[in-house]
Amino acid sequence: MRSLEIEGAWVLEPKVFPDERGSFHEWYRGAEFREATGYDLTLAQANCSVSRRGVVRGVHFADTPPGQAKYVTCVRGAVLDVVVDLRLGSPSFGSWEAVRLDEDTRHAVFLSEGLGHAFMALSDDATVVYLCSTGYAPEREHGVHPLDPDLAIEWPRGIEPVLSPKDAEAPTLARARQDGLLPEYETCRAHYERLRTGRVSG
After folding, report:
1. The domain that contains 104 carries what CATH number?
2. Of 54, 102, 50, 55, nearest in space to 75 by CA
3. Is residue 40 part of a domain?
4. What pLDDT, in 10s, does the model give residues 141-173?
5. Using CB atoms within 10 A of its CB, is residue 117 exposed (0-12), middle (13-18) or buried (19+)?
6. Residue 199: inside a domain, yes or no?
7. HSE, side-chain direction, 13 A CA sphere, residue 72
């Protein structure tokens, strides 16, 4: 796993073995994950979303702790996957990083609790599967508008973004900060340390 520039985010770039039958790759390896992050991935929920070209999902995040870490890959088609640093006090607060996930390279992204997540479908029937460290809890879920000009995420040109009503009504980063919705960097770092030392209870 290779660290992204945003602390707490990694990309897996597996070796894919194609042959006349199809292909094989390892999209998650516990030992490699632990070596990169310092702890094991807790799996509480697995999600699958299918999106038509242009659909944007996110930017989503959850109250931390416990937060919701995500391990994401695209098993059909292609998406532009985006990690956003929403942690107040982080050296990279407000920055974002994008990784193309597709059915050819089979790359995967892991983002720690407190980071925001979004993606745009680059193809029809783009199918994204992701493992989550905690289950869905609507009272702890939040969003930031993916087209917020202050975030200035560079979504692909020539594709009209399609947003759900919920995402279209999400606050800007500035408003989310003003409303006290954003996680604190030091709180997130303390949570990561508890994961590394095994002091996080279920």
Report:
1. 2.60.120.10
2. 102
3. yes
4. 999 999 999 999 999 999 999 999 999 999 999
5. buried
6. no
7. 28
Partnered with residue 110 across adjacent β-strands are 10, 71
Distance (Å, rounded) from C-alpha 141 to C-alpha 68? 9
For residue 12, give Cα distances in angstroms to 32, 101, 107, 110, 128: 9, 10, 5, 8, 15
Number of independent structural domains in the chain: 1
With CA atoms as reference, report the closest residue to 89 among 188, 174, 20: 188
Catalytic annotation, residues: 60, 130
Q: How far is CA 115 from CA 63, 68, 162, 173, in A?
A: 10, 9, 22, 13
| 6 dihedral zone (left: phi>0; alpha: psi -120 to 50; beta) | beta
Distance between CA atoms of residues 54 and 75, nearest Å: 17
Q: CA 37: distance to chain centroid?
A: 15
Is the overall model pTM greater than 0.85, yes or no? yes
The end-to-end CA distance of the chain, in Å, is: 26
Range of the domain at 127: 2-18+26-191
